[in-house]
Structure formats: C-alpha cells, structure tokens
UniProtKB/TrEMBL annotation:
UniProt organism field: Bosea vestrisii
InterPro entries assigned: KH_dom-like_a/b (IPR015946), OsmC/Ohr_fam (IPR003718), OsmC/Ohrsf (IPR036102), OsmC_Ohr_Peroxiredoxin (IPR052707)
Coiled-coil segments on the chain, per record: none
Protein's name according to its UniProt entry: OsmC family protein
Amino acid sequence: MATHGATITWQRGEEETFLDNRYSRAHFWRFDGGLEVPASSSPHVVRVPFSNPANVDPEEAYVAGLSSCHMLTFLNLAAIRGYRVDSYADAAEGAMAKNAEGREWVATVTLKPHVVFSGPKAPDAAAVEALHHDAHANCFLANSVRSALETQGSWDYRPA
C-alpha cells in the first residue's frame, strides 16, 4: 500500500514570546512534488492577526481533500461507463458542530458539484446519481472519515 506524506513547518517570530499565546499560527505545508502551501489556523478559530485568512486552513484543506477525492473517483467512473465529462466544479462546504463530548468537529461536508457532459452518450439523472454514489463508496478519503459526506450535485448534457 502507498504512503502519503507532507512536511509541516512553523517558526516562532523573534518578537513573539509564545507563552502569552499571542503568536502567529502561519506555517507551511510542503509536499513531495515540491509544492509549498502557506497555511494557518482558521480565522474562525484564532483571530487575526494571529491567523492569516489568506492562507489555507486545515478545515478548508479537509473539505478540499474530500471534494477532490470524490471528483477524481467520479471522473474515473464516468470514463469507465462511457460518459464524457467536459467540466466539473464543486463549491464544497464543511459545517462545524459540537460532538457529544462538546468538542468541535467538521460534522458534515456537503459537495455541490456541477458536472457538464457531452458526447454520444447522455447520462440521465439516475446515472449521475449512481456515479456520485459509487464515487462516494470508492473515494479513499470518504472511507477514512467520520464526518457525514453529502452530495448535492447538478449536471448538464451538451450533445456533440
């Protein structure tokens, strides 16, 4: 089985004492391909200026990861089933809630993909629903989390 990794780095600023809890949460994610992504705590969790709203936060990355995994699985299944996909766009959202112990967690991730199909084979609503269902069932990340993952997608078909 494959192993996936990332290197996360943070450095205390010279002017920050840290012990007063007034320090920057800005940090970097480095991936094996060399990409470096500026990250931070969410400004919903830690107020600005101690978080950087321009950076990716872990909650956003979690939602994006689930959306991306679903999309990649959906595209693979669509190709296997003979449906040509021209575009796929998702405005995914994650909703925070408190669990039974009173701790916050990402309770629900809602995927809202809009898929555009073309070509000789047009999917109907049942086929698109089946693609989303099977994508969810086969997405590695969806199989790895406790959060509810919902899909509220739409689609178009544009004949060739």
